[in-house]
Amino acid sequence: MTDTMDIKITKTKHSRLNETDFSNLPFGKHFTDHMFVADYVDGAWKNFEIVPYGEIGLSPAISALHYGQAFFEGLKAYKHADGKVTVFRPDKNAARFNKSAERLCMPELPEEIFIQSIAALVDVERDWIPTAPNHSLYIRPFMFASDPFLGVAASTTYKYIVLTCPVGPYFSKTLRVKIENQYTRAAEGGFGYAKAAGNYGGAMLPAKKAVDEGFDQLIWTDAKEHKYVEEMGAANVMFVLDGKLITPSLDLQTILDGVTRNTVITLAKDWGYPVEERRVSVAEIVEGAKNGKLTDAFGAGTAATIAPVGSISYEGEEYFLSDPKTREFSQKVLNTLDAIRYGRAEDPHGWNYVVQSAE
Ligand code: PLP
Ligand code: COI
Q: What is this structure's pTM?
């Protein structure tokens, strides 16, 4: 399908498309008919294939299962009214994929392979892309270590797989969030900036406790003092405080360099809106919520999209923010982003990667 990549395509004989209820698409539950698979063997990526989605045979001794050499990406494909299919900023995900790979002592996957594997799979699955508002095809590329070896050492073989799922909105309501001041997601020198599987496993207990307390999500704080805000569940967190967009900076390498975060910052700068990427203290957020200067707060992520925060709790006190529908900044971001992604507006930054049809 490209000059450089030969992908063997084996199509399923039994499509599940007509059995899938597109009016009810919980995140990550429904998989399309096919997946992309490749192997890293003898120092090179090979065996590029699109095969029917299904189980894969693996040794129970693979080091991904024991030592967590595994990471993933998340991006989305959209179908425009004219039928054109685009993937949003796959080059950014390719770059982050390789940052994660490097930190976990795993092999680089050339950007060309990352993008072409996704384009080829999305092309095969075009009929699976939902067209309802806020719906899209979620793309999950991931890599894991596949040596059957219990020694603690980097694997010599790996698998790269891409799955796709038709999805609706990840969050269906305004979020009640809690600022976490006990548990830590990532520390300086760690691997918080990588989309490592282990970062998500370690977040599950604190997240469950927050849910048990009646919250939808938690906002992580720094590992040293729990005084500075980091990110929100599986999304970056952004605020409008005193007329400025503020968000934690990437400097300490404890948070993910989110594609949505970068996109929101770029749009804000395009609009001449003041932007501050810096350390954001819990104290200023709580103070802003109290005195009304915190006019917007939202999670920003591929799955989460722009997820409005309705209230923030800290040390047992709950602070309520304005009705999300009345919030100027996040509403404008959401509308602009949607218009670009679904092809209703210009795409001045070239964020939409067009998936060519092989037929
Ligand atoms: N932070 C974490 C921990 C995430 O899992 C995600 C989701 O991918 C994000 C931030 C947002 O990143 P992106 O906008 O690239 O999806
Ligand atoms: C994404 O937005 O792609 C994520 O990674 C969130 C996911 C863990 C549900």
A: 0.97
